[in-house]
Design brief:
Length: about 500
């Protein structure tokens, strides 16, 4: 539910609490803006929700990213208070707690004595259920929960077919989205204008921001990867991307090039506002800028997948978007686990697949085209349930977003909207030659193949015995071997996939 507050000359509430979730910033923030505009005093909080993070591995880059980004939010709030010349500016603080948000938010709101809690809408079924419970608990003590649209430009009810139905094809959705968009929807929320309403929490509630260790997590390689965090990091990454936008339409295909924006983690955690990137992309696309057009399309896809999930909560229960695909019979037992482990570890014998998986394991990042190729390989070459891959990506990706991840995996498996057809099976060798023609990306993550030149770098098993000997390269599954032979042969995999997908063909 998205609620708009009526404009009023006087605050609607004496005090309110703003609850940050996946919107870790103090600027262009819908909930914060409306709270500051409509309330006399505004407190801001974030909860490390134990219902979510308890299940994460104890070394998790995303938790570390959030910890670092919250420091930026705290600084920004204090700077806003100072700019507004508030006498208590130094005492303005982001309240950070650790525990179940379902319990802590009502408790914190009651302790602060606020009349309302403001937050931005989330669209995952688990988040919707959490917010419903929080709403009820708050209502029991006379506190109102207000939710606002922020992470998307249009929610599930705003872009519909002429018949009032949701779009299931992205191309049609994008056309309708572009017809509806205007500068009105891309305006930033000027939180700074009402910063004088920022309140200092009582001294007893002010504590230092928690460390990773306080949360029972350990440092990752986030610093080593030099991934900038917080709103300052987002601004830095955005500034680096703008000069590359002109070549985006071409360079985005090649993982060895610095062709993509690398902004997905900042959009995921809201250290960057979607309006902040969409507005200039849309303006430049209107002027015929090809790179902006392509990037805009990818940003629109975020809205598309979000509305698909919001309208189809069964997807969060592991169901296929196309129900007939739930009849698929995937590999099972020890063999399934063995080949899945090889895929996870980057030991399939296909260099591009292995390089992509090793990149993911090392950095928490994978190029978008490689997400498509590796997912397709798992489902169609190895016959492993796409849900296994979906869960693995959910654990590893820094920018994990449920809607986008589910949408991508179901596309690869053929079970989703606008899906890759069941009969289309990507050849991993041809994809390798196309996406990494020089082998630069492969060699970055599969250095054991460094002595093997092109074209065999894309398919090492095709090199003759003499060439392998000269290179000092042994292929096989033994401990002394340097690189595995292919876990599956392409043509045989295609035939088996066609047999597996026959159940879908009969239903269509």
């Amino acid at each position: 539910m998205v609620i708009s507050l009526a404009n009023a000359h006087s605050p609607r509430y004496t005090s309110a609490l703003v609850w940050l979730r996946r919107d870790l910033r103090a600027h262009d923030h819908a909930a914060l803006y409306h709270a500051l505009k409509n309330c006399g005093q505004v407190f801001v909080c974030f909860v490390f929700d134990s219902d979510v993070i308890a299940a994460l591995p104890r070394v998790d880059r995303r938790v570390e990213f959030i910890v670092s980004s919250l420091a930026d939010v705290n600084t920004a709030l204090q700077q806003m208070a100072q700019a507004a010349a508030l006498p208590h500016a130094a005492q303005v603080q982001l309240l950070v707690r650790h525990g179940s948000a379902r319990e802590l938010i009502p408790k914190l709101a009651a302790t602060l004595g606020v009349q309302a809690v403001f937050a931005n809408q989330e669209y995952e079924p688990a988040a919707i259920a959490r917010d419903s419970q929080v709403r009820g608990s708050l209502a029991n003590v006379g506190i109102t929960l207000h939710l606002f649209k922020d992470q998307v430009i249009f929610d599930a009810a705003e872009v519909l077919t002429p018949a009032g139905r949701a779009y299931s094809a992205f191309s049609a959705y994008q056309r309708a989205w572009l017809q509806k968009i205007s500068t009105f929807y891309l305006q930033a929320y000027p939180c700074e204008r009402y910063a004088q309403q920022l309140a200092a929490p009582p001294a007893i509630m002010r504590t230092s921001l928690p460390s990773l260790q306080d949360l029972d997590f350990q440092p990752s390689n986030l610093a080593q990867l030099r991934i900038p965090t917080g709103t300052s990091g987002a601004a830095q990454m955005l500034a680096h991307f703008w000069p590359r936008l002109a070549r985006y339409a071409e360079d985005r295909h090649y993982p060895a090039r610095r062709g993509v924006s690398y902004l997905s983690v900042h959009l995921r955690f809201g250290t960057l506002s979607i309006r902040q990137v969409l507005k200039p992309a849309w303006e430049q696309a209107q002027s015929g800028h090809e790179g902006a057009k392509v990037w805009l399309s990818e940003l629109i896809r975020r809205d598309f997948f979000t509305q698909i999930l919001a309208r189809n909560p069964r997807l969060a229960q592991g169901k296929s978007y196309r129900p007939e695909y739930d009849a698929m019979v995937w590999e099972k037992g020890a063999r399934a686990r063995k080949i899945f482990t090889a895929w996870c570890e980057g030991k399939t014998g296909y260099p591009l697949i292995d390089a992509a998986m090793r990149q993911l394991n090392y950095s928490g990042y994978m190029h978008n085209r490689l997400r498509m190729v590796t997912a397709s390989f798992l489902c169609k070459h190895l016959g492993v349930d796409w849900r296994w891959g979906e869960a693995y990506f959910a654990e590893k990706l820094n920018d994990f977003d449920y809607a986008a991840n589910n949408g991508g995996w179901q596309w690869a498996a053929g079970s989703g909207c606008d899906a890759q057809p069941y009969f289309r099976i990507l050849n991993p060798v041809l994809q390798s030659q196309k996406l990494d023609p020089s082998g630069q990306f492969i060699l970055r993550y599969v250095p054991e193949l460094a002595a093997l030149g092109l074209p065999h770098l894309h398919a090492p098993w095709q090199a003759d015995a003499l060439e392998l000997q000269v290179c000092g390269l042994r292929l096989g599954s033994k401990a002394q071997d340097h690189y595995p032979l292919p876990i599956v042969e392409h043509r045989a995999a295609v035939e088996k996939a066609q047999q597996r997908y026959a159940v879908v063909k009969r239903a269509s």
